[in-house]
C-alpha cells in the first residue's frame, strides 16, 4: 500500500476546517501541534514540504485534547523554547514562542557587554529565559519567581540542560532589598500583564496554566509598574530593563518608563510582527 502525502498548505487547510467545526480558532496552536506531531522544532514549520496523510489523525486528536482543556506540554510531555525542551507542570506557565523575542532583543546588545553582564530574570516560571541566556552567553544568571513549584521545575530544567542559574523564591510585592544584594546590568521579565477581562476573553490560553502567571491587577500593569519602579534602584548605570508586554499596553508602559527616567526606550515586535517587548536604559 502506497503512502499518500499532503502538502503543508493542504494540511493546514484540513486542520483549520477541522478546528472551525469545533469552534476553535488559534492557528499558532495548530502550527505547534503540526511540528510536535512530526517531532520537529517550531522554527522548522516553514520548511515542511509534505507529510504523510495518516498523521492528520494524530494531529486532530491532539487538537481535540487541547480543546478539551489539556495544554501542549501535557499532550506532548514537554514544551520547546529557543530550540530546547523544557519540562512544565500545571503549576508552571507554558513558555510561549512570542517570549523568544525577549531573548532576541537582549542578544542584540554588544557581545562584550553581554559577556560580563550581571543578569536577573523576574517571574522566571519554567526558567526558560534565564536558562536560555545562561546557555548562550555561558554566564551565570539569577532568576526569581513567587511560586515554589516554579522554582523547583526551573531548577530541574537548568540541571537537565546544563545551565548556570541561581533560582530564588521571592514575592516582588515585598521589599526587594531582602533578596537583591547587588545591582544588575540587565533585568528581564515576562510578568503577568492581563486584567480580569482579558483573562476571561482568553480562557483557552489561561487554562492549565497557573492564574497567577496572567493576573496583572485591575489594569494589567500592576507588576510591570512595580518592576519599572523598583528596577531603577537595582540597575547599574546605563543598565537595561527588558519587559514582555501586551501590545495594547505599549504606549502606557513607554510613558511610565519615561517618567522614571529610562532612556533609549525601544519597542520590538515578536514573530507575528506584534509589539511584544519594551526595553530601556537607566541613567
Any key phrases for this structure?
seven-stranded mixed β-sheet, Rossmann fold, single chain, alpha/beta, 283 residues, 2 domains
How would you describe the overall organization of this protein?
With 283 residues, the protein is α/β, with parallel strands linked by helices. The protein has two domains: 5-68; 95-282, Rossmann fold, CATH 3.40.50. 39% of the residues lie in helices and 20% in strands. It has twelve helices and eleven strands. The chain has helices at 8-21, 27-37, 55-67, 72-76, 100-107, 111-116, 128-137, 148-161, 196-201, 203-206, 222-231, 250-259; strands at 5-7, 50-52, 79-81, 84-86, 119-122, 141-145, 165-169, 184-189, 235-244, 262-269, 275-282. The strands form three sheets. A seven-stranded mixed sheet has the order 7-6-5-8-9-11-10, sandwiched between helices. Strands 1-2 form a two-stranded antiparallel sheet. The chain has a two-stranded antiparallel sheet with strand order 3-4. Helix 7 (128-137) links the parallel strand 5 (119-122) and strand 6 (141-145). Helix 1 runs parallel beside helix 3 (55-67). The protein is globular, with a radius of gyration of 20 Å. The N and C termini lie far apart (69 Å). The mean pLDDT is 90.
Amino acid at each position: 500500500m502506497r503512502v499518500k502525502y499532503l502538502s503543508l498548505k493542504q494540511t493546514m487547510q484540513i486542520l483549520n476546517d477541522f478546528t472551525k467545526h469545533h469552534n476553535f480558532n488559534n492557528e499558532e496552536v495548530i502550527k505547534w501541534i503540526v511540528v510536535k506531531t512530526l517531532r520537529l522544532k517550531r522554527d522548522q514549520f516553514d520548511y515542511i514540504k509534505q507529510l504523510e496523510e495518516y498523521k492528520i489523525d494524530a494531529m486532530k486528536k491532539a487538537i481535540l485534547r487541547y480543546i478539551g482543556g489539556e495544554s501542549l506540554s501535557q499532550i506532548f510531555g514537554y514544551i520547546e523554547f529557543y530550540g530546547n525542551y523544557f519540562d512544565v507542570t500545571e503549576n508552571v506557565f507554558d513558555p510561549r514562542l512570542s517570549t523568544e523575542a525577549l531573548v532576541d532583543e537582549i542578544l542584540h546588545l554588544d557581545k562584550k557587554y553581554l559577556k560580563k553582564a550581571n543578569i536577573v530574570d523576574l517571574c522566571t516560571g519554567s526558567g526558560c529565559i534565564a536558562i536560555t541566556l545562561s546557555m548562550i552567553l555561558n554566564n551565570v544568571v539569577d532568576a526569581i519567581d513567587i511560586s515554589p513549584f516554579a522554582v523547583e521545575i526551573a531548577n530541574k530544567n537548568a540541571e537537565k540542560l546544563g545551565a548556570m542559574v541561581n533560582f530564588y523564591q521571592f514575592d516582588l510585592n515585598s521589599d526587594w532589598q531582602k533578596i537583591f544584594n547587588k545591582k544588575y546590568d540587565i533585568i528581564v521579565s515576562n510578568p503577568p500583564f492581563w486584567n480580569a477581562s482579558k483573562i476571561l476573553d482568553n480562557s483557552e490560553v489561561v487554562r492549565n496554566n497557573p492564574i497567577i502567571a496572567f493576573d496583572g491587577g485591575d489594569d494589567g500593569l500592576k507588576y510591570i509598574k512595580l518592576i519599572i519602579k523598583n528596577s531603577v534602584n537595582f540597575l547599574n548605570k546605563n543598565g537595561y530593563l527588558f519587559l514582555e508586554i501586551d501590545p495594547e499596553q505599549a504606549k502606557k508602559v513607554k510613558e511610565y518608563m519615561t517618567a522614571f527616567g529610562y532612556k533609549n526606550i525601544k519597542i520590538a515586535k515578536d514573530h507575528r510582527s506584534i509589539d511584544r517587548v519594551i526595553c530601556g536604559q537607566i541613567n
